[in-house]
Amino acid sequence: MKDLRRYLVLKYIQYLVLSSSNAISTLLGLLGSFYTIIILQSAKVSSKSTAVLISSLAKADILVSVSAVSEMVVWTFDVTISSTAFTSALLQNLLTANTHISCLLLSCVAFEAYLITFFPTESRHLRTVKKARLTSRIIWILVTAECALFQMDDLLKASSTSAPTCSPCVLLFHFSSTAAALLRSLSYFLGILLRIVNVYIYYKIFFSMSNR
Signal peptide: which range, if any (predicted)? Predict the structure, then answer.
């Protein structure tokens, strides 16, 4: 459990403290996720809701691995990509999806820690493995839909110059562009809100434990 706590601290720093990811934090995050996945396979780790959330958090770094490996293959072997704009947008959207999934799951872990600290008995029916898996699945579905919308918007923007002005795709272009812009703004403000909420939760937990 000490290793899992260290992993959570690393992820909080990576996604909720640093303004943007860098090569060092990304590499440490990938190594930590790989190590955490191995730890969670051990019989010594009990199957609890927190472990389920942490497992889903570690698996989210698969998106970073796909993006990093793809860029390395293109750079190392000088691979020619037929649709550079599409691929570049896809790799960026995968990183965005990873960030959003990680922030939401870290917030779920923080909220669960808050319930354990202040409402251990009353919240027992909420802190189940089944509900943790359902929460993780919902987060993955929502962020996947967000990633698909961003990708469609980027694709339509890349092809907008060659598309005819009277094409029915114009309506789709304006809809996806507006929806993507609103979703990006919502994601930005939600990210700020999650940072504030997480700081408040751990502030309350810290002083509660200190008083005891």
Answer: none
